[in-house]
Write a structure and sequence with these properties.
The protein is built from 47 helices and 38 strands. It has a ten-stranded mixed β-sheet, sandwiched between helices. Strand 26 and strand 27 form a beta hairpin. Helix 22 packs antiparallel against helix 23 and helix 34 packs antiparallel against helix 42. The N and C termini lie far apart (81 Å). The N terminus is likely disordered.
């Protein structure tokens, strides 16, 4: 490369480059010479060669122009169209939608594109009810209760009335539907405001006719035949630009702007957008008020990036349009790809009136929702409108069907209860048959007056099914959803997760996974922007065999000062000396830094600043030739850092046009312009970026920068002399040293191109850009032809600092039993160094690397031998791993894997046509090793490889309890080996809790989205790479350190709350409906209900729902300070200690016990409520008046022959109901709850008094044979006051029953559990003899509960040592907190 830099030739000689991102736009004879296929000829003659995909439309169409949509829109919801059964059921609904869709199209033809109306609302008036019915009855419990409600309608089957199940079911379904409708109503209001927003649209006036650009008067007529042919995919004879006579048609046209609403925009409409206005539709820019058709947009509403992005009109359109009249007379045809949700790609082409074809790309594409900045105005043509705009297509990506781990366990419990219910129904049927055959009749005469002749055995089973149906809680799902929404409210309003500096709180995109946050075992983390700040600072560069440091870097012995180099270059250039090879290579490298990028100088933020020093690492640096400091904008923080560094080193990037870049080099008196020919964009697949320039001296230079492994693969294989070899070796050595320091490295290379070779290549590149299908692949293939035989220039090193609190957070996660994996695209040395800095790798850590150094694959070897080498490494490393763990069980081992190795295994699986990579033996062994490792670093991983690894680990953990070897055979072997059959049986019998296996992925960029979607829980970092990850995630936070309060506090609280809520809900249903089961022993197993039907149906709605919801919202088993200081407590959720079959069985048995006590104790104490004659009534208890034979006989042998038998159900049912309400309220709110507030007392009293008030009111409202008193054997009218008239007796039985139940069961069980823990803690725990409570003068009010590091708890946790680790003993810490607060009092 030469140092001679001359001004570029005049722009007129450059062949007319349209854009930096596209090849030069062909004009006149030069175009035909480069590419004869692009010469002027009629489009209709070329129609057979066109790709029949996407859409064709016209700018300022003629009457004969036909709009074609090769992908006509489909009508109807996806869930209907894709399901054959739903398609058949809802066929009339689909027909109605099609009719409505056609009626909305303008006459006379059907325009094959949707209008610009957007609808974020999920439902319409027509779709709401059918959609919601499908949603509601997709829940198994709702289907179950619907079937039961249908059985109740069958005569002589239901013992509880015909509507007692359908009423609460309808109530909860309607509540859910009202909630959805309420939310959707506000979405409709927002949609209406957006659709009615004002815009300016072009109106073309030709002669005496005024024509709206979108109206049929403009001639946008599409014949029904053409529409049908387009819809069927057949060839359509599109009448396009006939000749230059078409232009003559518009020669007298004038244009003006009319005000319209956003929803009125159609495809092909031309609109005007002014500075700081939103783009109302996806448009292609035709003209910009800025020079060369450049405009700037801000896409923060799309991807969260606040940096400006440059767009530019094609040179052909910009030159043809100078004002609104020129715009009115411009005529062209556009062919674009089909609408898609890809925010980062756009393919199409434009054919002007001269039949010249120009490729369209993202450089001309402005997305709906972006904001125009630093541009007075632009004119653009609408390409995609309404629901077909990219932001809307992207918004309707199918949501994740993620189900929480606890939800899956709950479903299994419900199935278990359903099995019990069927067993009870079968046993009841058999008991009824035995009783009926013995006690029903004697000598053919019925023994009881209330029996009928037919036994009806066939229906008794269904009678019991209806009677016991509510063992499964009908309100579980609805109330749980409400509870989780309130939990999310607390979560997003937590100041401990609020980033005050950037004003970013925590956000939740779902509430379904709250409890999973308390059960995480594996965390998969991105590096850049997640663990680091993503604020890049240029530090070092290596060129010509020498390392240099940026002027802002302090003293270093291994790098020279770049200031001296710049002074040397400036002096040599000023004196006109020819640069020696060393200086020349340094000059070329710095020039490449200033040229090879896509950054944009934002002059709008420039300001005069004369007092800045000549070298400064900040963004604003003065220059001798401009007093305006320039701020650079780029989507890549690395590029901004490099361009700033080049500016600091006096290679000042001053200006950019679509065809040139202007630099001021070494403070020379004149600026230098470089002609920009092409830009080959950086992609995650290419991992490199290239620019092609025509230097002022006429040379065509290819400049390439990218990852070291990518660039080195493309370096020329030509022999090197000794000096060249030394320089290359020195650069590579410096790159390794930079990476070891944790710096991000890039290599620069170049290639000088022959003009004829470039011209031929540019023709192929133009063809690739003009393709609509597979454009990215075609462009990449053509770029690959050019990016080879490169010459290495140098390397840069950029520092990305760690976020605050990252090392402490990772150490805390490790103490909590969470294994952290770091997945990054950086090279191994950089990733390992960051791992040391962020505490993934400690001093005593054993690091096991799988890369080219530890497992050399060589070049040119067959794939089988490479996989064999990887297999050998895995085998030997696994043996070493096992040996270390057996010798030192607590040793810390980290495994680092390079993505290239995983790629080899993927190719091997593809060659063997194996469906999943895990099925290959080598990959299976590697995955066993990674899962067993304490921490893992994955280097050089692509986004798809990140997602693959997360998905496989998630699959392993989900099946660990059902597959041989568990999640990892190696981990299982180190844990004591695979359990024997007897061990498995014993673990099953004692219902031993099992690990949750929940995975969590966290990242900040769009490339992390696949990984976030694959994990059980996805956490987005709202960082500097935009909002793409946070919008696609389940939850989002501003900093990595906020994982601590999110997991340890809110995650654990949510887990404990949902556990207690679910257990309480199951318990209250078992307790209440278990009384029906017990009562069958008193009524001949006939299926008679103990309760009045409407009182029965309101149990879940009014009398027991609030207590469980309160504990689900407010429960705190431990304070925040304790949870943050003792991360070991997080293992409570990991091991499923709060919700497992052992805990569930205890609650179910307690429920059945309380149910039995609620019926048997009143029956015993009241003597069966039978009338015995004399002055006694049904409400006169026998208490102390009944002898033993009397009450035993009347309780167990009463057959209802007394005159008060019908009403005798009421007293026993009412007192049992009252006892169960008190049991449920006291047990849930007080016995099992650890955080009792005034709200708990209020809800407890409210629940009880609502029940009493209901009894008073309903006993007087109830009438026989009416809506409130159907034809049943249950008497109710006016009985409640008579029942409790003697309050001492009534409430004496109630209180005595409740006290006996609580003392006999709950208190005694908890006492025995506490006794057992005291024995463990005192004898075998290895702990101090007394609980540590520190002396402190701090008052409780002065101790901030939100303090993340409670010093007292930390010191107390330090005593959790000994033979047994008890730091995760929740009960011990609860006792510690009680003593701590008692001491303060």
């Amino acid at each position: 490369m030469s140092s001679a830099v001359q001004p570029p030739p005049p722009a007129a000689t450059r062949g007319g480059t349209d854009a930096a991102h596209t090849p030069r736009a062909p004009t006149s004879a030069a175009t035909a010479q480069l590419n004869p296929s692009l010469s002027r000829r009629s489009l209709s003659a070329r129609g057979g060669d066109e790709e029949r995909v996407g859409r064709k439309f016209f700018v300022n169409p003629l009457p004969s122009d036909v709009f074609v949509n090769y992908d006509p829109p489909v009508v109807g919801p996806v869930w209907i169209r894709t399901n054959p059964m739903f398609s058949f059921i809802f066929h009339p609904y689909l027909v109605l939608l099609r009719v409505l869709h056609r009626s909305k199209q303008p006459a006379p033809g059907v325009i094959p594109f949707v209008d610009n109306t957007v609808r974020t609302a999920r439902y319409t008036v027509l779709s709401f009810i059918p959609s919601q019915l499908v949603v509601q009855f997709s829940k198994v419990a709702n289907i179950y209760f619907f079937v039961v409600s249908m059985l109740q309608i069958v005569p002589n089957v239901s013992p509880t009335g015909k509507f007692t199940t359908i009423f609460p079911l309808s109530f909860f379904i309607i509540v859910s539907m009202i909630k959805e409708g309420y939310d959707d109503y506000f979405r409709h209001k927002q949609d209406s405001a957006e659709n009615s927003s004002p815009i300016q649209r072009l109106v073309v006036t030709s002669g005496a006719t005024s024509r709206s650009h979108r109206s049929s008067l403009m001639g946008r007529k599409l014949s029904f035949k053409a529409d049908a042919e387009a819809a069927s995919g057949r060839n359509t004879n599109v009448v396009e630009l006939q000749s230059l006579n078409s232009i003559a048609f518009h020669s007298t046209s004038t244009g003006s702007w009319e005000n319209a609403s956003c929803k009125e925009i159609r495809v092909g409409d031309i609109i005007r957008v002014r500075d700081r206005e939103f783009i109302p539709a996806d448009i292609v820019v035709l003209y910009s008020s800025n020079e060369d058709g450049i405009c700037f947009i801000e896409t923060s509403n799309l991807d969260g990036e606040t940096n400006l992005k440059q767009r530019q009109a094609l040179k052909a359109t910009f030159d043809a349009i100078h004002d609104v009249n020129g715009l009115a007379n411009y005529h062209a045809m556009m062919h674009t790809e089909s609408p898609s949700g890809d925010l980062y790609n756009f393919d199409g082409y434009l054919v002007d009136a001269a039949n010249v074809r120009f490729p369209l790309s993202t450089n001309q594409f402005l997305q709906r929702g972006a904001t125009l900045r630093n541009t007075k105005e632009i004119y653009g043509v609408a390409v995609y409108t309404g629901e077909e705009s990219k932001i809307r297509m992207n918004s309707f990506v199918p949501p994740n069907s993620k189900v929480s781990h606890l939800g899956a366990v709950t479903n299994k419990v419900i199935l278990f209860i359903l099995g019990l219910l069927l067993v009870f129904c079968a046993l009841g049927l058999m008991a009824y048959i035995l009783w009926d055959s013995r006690d029903r009749a004697q000598d053919g005469i019925l023994k009881h007056w209330y029996l009928i002749g037919d036994s009806g055995y066939s229906l008794v089973f269904f009678t019991f099914l209806i009677l016991f149906n509510a063992f499964i809680p009908i309100s579980l799902y609805v109330t749980m959803e409400v509870v989780k929404i309130v939990q999310v409210y607390f979560m997003v309003n937590d100041l401990a997760m609020y980033d005050e500096e950037r004003d970013i709180p925590a956000q939740a995109n779902t509430s379904a996974l709250n409890e999973d946050l308390g059960q995480v075992q594996y965390v998969f983390s991105d590096k850049t922007g997640t663990l680091t700040e993503n604020v890049m600072e240029f530090r070092l560069f290596s060129v010509a065999g020498q390392a240099f440091k940026h002027p802002s870097v302090g003293r270093r012995n291994d790098a020279a000062d770049a200031t001296v180099l710049i002074q040397d270059l400036s002096s040599a250039r000023a004196q006109g000396y020819r640069l020696n090879p060393f200086r020349q290579q340094c000059f070329d490298f710095l020039l490449a830094m200033a040229l090879c990028h896509s950054a944009i100088p934002d002059l709008s933020q420039a300001r005069i600043d004369n007092d800045m020093p000549p070298f400064n690492s900040e963004e604003r640096v003065p220059n001798n030739h401009t007093q305006n400091a320039i701020v650079y904008q780029s989507s890549s923080a690395d590029e901004v850092a490099i361009v700033n560094a080049a500016r600091d080193l006096t290679f000042l990037y001053k200006n950019r046009t679509p065809t040139s870049v202007v630099l001021n080099i070494l403070n020379e008196p004149t600026d230098t312009e470089f002609e920009l020919l092409n830009i080959l964009e950086f992609t995650s697949d290419r991992k490199r970026m290239s620019t092609i320039y025509k230097y002022p001296d006429g040379r065509i230079m290819l400049l390439v920068k990218g990852a070291d492994n990518v660039i080195l693969e493309r370096i020329s294989s030509a022999p090197l002399n000794e000096d060249q070899f030394r320089i290359k070796a020195s650069i590579l050595q410096d790159v390794g040293a930079f990476a070891t320091e944790g710096l991000r490295t890039l290599l620069y290379a170049y290639r000088e191109l022959d003009s004829s070779f470039y011209n031929q290549w540019n023709v192929r590149y133009a063809d690739a850009l003009a393709s609509i299908t597979n454009r990215v692949a075609n462009v990449s293939a053509v770029a690959e032809e050019l990016e080879r035989e490169l010459i290495l220039l140098g390397a840069t090193a950029i520092e990305d600092k760690l976020q605050e609190g990252v090392p402490e957070t990772i150490e805390t996660l490790r103490k909590a039993g969470i294994r952290v994996w770091m997945l990054t695209g950086d090279k191994t040395e950089t990733a390992v160094n960051i791992g040391r800095t962020c505490n993934l790798i400690k001093k005593e850590t054993h690091v096991m690397l799988l890369n080219d150094e530890t497992c050399p694959l060589g070049k040119g070897k067959p794939l089988e031998s490479e996989v064999a080498a990887i297999s050998n490494w895995v085998t030997s490393t696994t043996a070493n791993f096992k040996q270390l763990k057996l010798q030192m069980p607590n040793c810390h081992i980290l495994v680092a894997v390079e993505g290239r190795m995983l790629t080899k295994l993927e190719k091997m699986a593809a060659n063997n046509q194996i469906g999943g990579n895990e099925e290959t033996p080598t990959f299976k062994s590697l995955l066993d090793l990674l899962i067993a490792a304490d921490n893992v670093i994955c280097c050089r991983f692509s986004p798809s490889q990140k997602a693959l690894l997360v998905r496989l680990v998630k699959s392993r953990l989900s099946k660990q309890h059902h597959t041989k070897g568990g999640a990892s055979e190696l981990l299982e072997e180190l844990s004591g080996g695979a359990p024997s059959g007897w061990s498995k049986l014993w673990s099953t019998l004692i219902l031993k809790p099992r690990p949750s296996g929940v995975t969590l992925a966290i990242g900040d960029g769009a490339n992390d989205i696949p990984m976030l979607l694959c994990a059980h829980v996805g956490i987005g970092i709202t960082g500097r790479e935009g909002l793409a990850a946070s919008r696609a995630s389940d939850y989002s936070i501003a900093k990595f350190k906020f994982l601590q309060p999110l997991l340890f506090v809110h995650g654990r609280w949510s887990y404990v709350r949902i556990c207690l809520f679910t257990l309480g809900t199951l318990y209250k249903n078992i307790t209440f409906y278990g009384t029906q089961l017990v009562f069958q022993f008193f009524c001949g197993y006939s299926g008679t209900s103990l309760y009045e039907q409407w009182t029965l149906s309101l149990n879940n709605v009014l009398f027991t729902s609030l207590p469980v919801m309160i504990v689900g919202v407010f429960e705190k088993d431990l304070n925040r300070s304790t949870l943050m200081a003792v991360p070991e407590l997080y293992r409570y959720g990991q091991m499923n200690r709060g919700f497992n079959f052992r805990v569930q069985l205890r609650w179910l048995l307690q429920g059945f016990l309380h149910a039995a006590l609620s019926v048997v104790l009143p029956a015993i104490l009241y003597g069966g409520f039978s009338w015995t004659g004399g002055n006694q009534t049904f409400s006169t208890p026998l208490f102390f008046y009944a002898n033993t034979p009397t009450w035993v006989k009347e309780v167990f042998q009463s057959d209802g022959s007394g005159p008060y038998q019908e009403s005798a159900l009421y007293p026993l049912g009412t007192i049992s109901y009252t006892i169960t309400v008190l049991f449920c309220t006291i047990k849930v709110l007080y016995v099992e709850c650890h955080y009792i507030t005034g709200i708990h007392h209020f809800i407890g009293l409210l629940t009880f008094f609502v029940w009493i008030a209901y009894q008073f009111v309903y006993s007087y409202v109830w009438q026989p044979h009416s809506a409130f008193g159907p034809d049943t054997a249950y008497e109710y009218s006016g009985l409640y006051y008579s029942l409790i008239h003697s309050q001492i007796r009534f409430w004496g039985v109630v209180i005595l029953s409740v006290v006996i139940g609580l003392i006999v069961e709950d208190v005694s069980v908890k006492f025995l559990e506490m006794l057992g823990r005291m024995v463990r803690w005192g004898a075998g725990g290895g702990r101090k003899s007394k609980i540590v409570v520190l002396e402190t003068s701090a008052e409780p009010s002065k101790l901030k509960d939100s303090d993340p590091l409670s010093q007292e708890a930390r010191i107390a946790a330090s005593h959790a040592v000994g033979e047994h680790d008890w730091a995760d003993e929740v009960e011990w810490w609860q006792r510690w907190e009680q003593l701590r607060m008692r001491r303060y009092r």
